[in-house]
Design brief:
The chain is of the alpha+beta class. The protein is built from six helices and twelve strands. The strands form two sheets. Strands 2, 3, 4, 5, 6, 7, 8, 9, 10 and 12 form a ten-stranded antiparallel beta sheet that branches. Strands 1-11 form a two-stranded parallel sheet. Strand 2 and strand 3 (50-55) form a beta hairpin. It is globular and about 90 Å long.
C-alpha cells in the first residue's frame, strides 16, 4: 500500500473533525434577543384620528399556541369629537365613547410574540384562518411606504366567512401581516425560517419573532365597502408601523 493510499484512509475522519471544530468559531449569545416591534399596542385616542380599545385573545388562540406565547391585541376605529357637527361619517353604525364618536371600519390588530419555541408560538395565517371558518384565501404581496421614509412589504390575504343566521350574507375579510424579528422584517414564512437560521449560525443568537397582523371586515351586514376597509387598513398600518417598530434596531 502506497503512502498516499495510507493517508487517504485517515482523510475522511480528519476532515470531519475539522468541520466539527468550526462550531467553536461560530459566535454565540445565550440571551434571547427581543423582537424589534414593541409589545404594547396604544389605546385610547393616542393615534391620529383613531380610537383604540384593548382586546383579549380567544381561548382557541391560547390553546393552539405554546403556553409562553405573548399576545397584544386591540380594536381601532376612526374617531371625532361628538360635538363636531362637520364630522363625516361612513356607512357603519356609530358608538359614543366619552366625548368621542367612533365610525367607519373596525380594524383588528394583533401582535403575537413567540416563546422559547418559535414553531409552536407562531403560525402562518394561511394555516390558522381556515380553522376559524375563513374560506378561499387569496394572497398577494403589497408594498407600503410610510411617512418616515421606510418601506415594508406585507402579505395581503382576502377571505370570507359564511353567515351565522338565516337571511344574512357572507362577510368579506382583508388581512395584512408581516413577521418582525430582532433585526429584520419579512412577510413570508420561508423567509422568516431562513433568516432565523442565518442569525443563529452566523450571528450567534436566538431571537423572539413577532407576528404583526391587521385585519378588517367589509360587505355582509357591516355596511362597509372594500375601498373603505382597504383605506382604513393602510392608514392604521402606517400609524402603527412607525410607532411600534424600532427602526434603529433594524439597522444593527
Amino acid at each position: 500500500m502506497t503512502l498516499l493510499r495510507r493517508l487517504s484512509i485517515f482523510a475522511p475522519p480528519v476532515l470531519l473533525g475539522l468541520i466539527l471544530s468550526l462550531i467553536y468559531l461560530i459566535p454565540h449569545n445565550p440571551v434571547l434577543q427581543e423582537s424589534a416591534i414593541r409589545p404594547d399596542l396604544p389605546c385610547g385616542t393616542v393615534l391620529n384620528g383613531w380610537y383604540g380599545e384593548r382586546a383579549q385573545e380567544s381561548k382557541e388562540e391560547r390553546e393552539a399556541l405554546a403556553a409562553d406565547t405573548r399576545f397584544s391585541k386591540a380594536l381601532y376605529r376612526r374617531c371625532k369629537s361628538r360635538y363636531d357637527e362637520d364630522a363625516i361619517f361612513l356607512s357603519a353604525p356609530s358608538n359614543n365613547i366619552g366625548e368621542y364618536i367612533t365610525y367607519g371600519p373596525r380594524i383588528s390588530v394583533s401582535i403575537v410574540y413567540s416563546g422559547s419555541d418559535m414553531n409552536s408560538s407562531i403560525h402562518r395565517p394561511e394555516r390558522c384562518l381556515p380553522s376559524q371558518g375563513h374560506q378561499e384565501l387569496t394572497g398577494t404581496d403589497v408594498g407600503l411606504s410610510l411617512s418616515n421614509g421606510k418601506d415594508i412589504t406585507f402579505r395581503r390575504l382576502s377571505s370570507y366567512t359564511l353567515p351565522q343566521r338565516p337571511g344574512e350574507v357572507r362577510t368579506e375579510h382583508i388581512h395584512y401581516y408581516v413577521f418582525v424579528g430582532h433585526a429584520s422584517i419579512t412577510h413570508t414564512h420561508l423567509g422568516r425560517t431562513f433568516r432565523d437560521m442565518w442569525d443563529r449560525v452566523f450571528r450567534g443568537y436566538v431571537q423572539r419573532w413577532a407576528y404583526f397582523q391587521i385585519g378588517a371586515e367589509w360587505g355582509g351586514n357591516t355596511g362597509i365597502t372594500e375601498q373603505e376597509a382597504e383605506q382604513a387598513l393602510r392608514e392604521i398600518v402606517s400609524e402603527l408601523a412607525q410607532r411600534q417598530i424600532d427602526w434603529q434596531q433594524l439597522q444593527n
